[in-house]
Design goal:
10 helices; globular; mainly alpha; single chain
């Protein structure tokens, strides 16, 4: 039984090493996009293992308060070249500024990173507010770049995945995604006004 588990782990490590070697021939931005795509396609057993390993989130009520988190969101957005008002809107929509948030499908932390996405972004502690924000902002920035600066498409990709946006050549016809994009756009206006004051 133990040897079977070790063989599976060694096989997984071999697949990961092969992906890394394939990525080394790409440019920096191509590597980033390819590693995110690959992370979302990780075998379910790897994603489940990663999710279980990270399931010990911090105790609710511990850690930074909402106002401190908002300052962290702004700082991470600025560091990663994302509009702070958009970042605040996204984090409010994703987690309500709760660093311990977990969705019914296993998305984690302030920016609700899925285990495969977190792994692809190098976020080893998704309930650590700073690490989660950094990963989420890098991912959002990559989606904005991928969809030519069109914020609504980047948000749709953040929610439904870039494959769905490509498939439908725009915001997918999913009620959840359409509501998500519209709500964030409204919150974005609110935060733009607040930050302008």
């Amino acid at each position: 039984m133990l040897s079977t588990g070790l063989e599976q782990i060694q096989g997984n490590i071999g697949r990961i090493n092969a992906r890394i070697q394939a990525l080394e021939s790409l440019s920096g931005s191509e590597q980033f996009a390819a590693s995110l795509d690959a992370a979302e396609k990780l075998p379910k057993n790897i994603q489940n293992t990663f999710s279980r390993a990270l399931s010990n989130s911090p105790t609710p009520g511990m850690g930074p308060g909402k106002e401190e988190i908002k300052k962290m969101v702004i700082g991470s957005a600025q560091k990663n070249g994302v509009d702070p008002a958009l970042a605040l809107a996204l984090v409010q929509m994703e987690s309500g500024f709760n660093p311990n948030a977990v969705s019914k499908v296993g998305a984690m932390g302030l920016t609700q990173l899925m285990p495969g996405t977190a792994a692809g972004l190098g976020v080893d502690e998704p309930f650590n507010a700073e690490k989660n924000l950094d990963g989420g902002m890098r991912y959002l920035k990559s989606m904005i770049g991928r969809f030519g600066g069109k914020t609504e498409l980047a948000l749709a990709a953040y929610n439904a995945g870039p494959g769905a946006v490509n498939k439908y050549k725009g915001i997918p016809p999913y009620k959840e995604t359409q509501h998500y994009v519209k709500t964030i756009q409204n919150l974005y206006q609110k935060y733009q006004n607040q930050l302008a004051d």
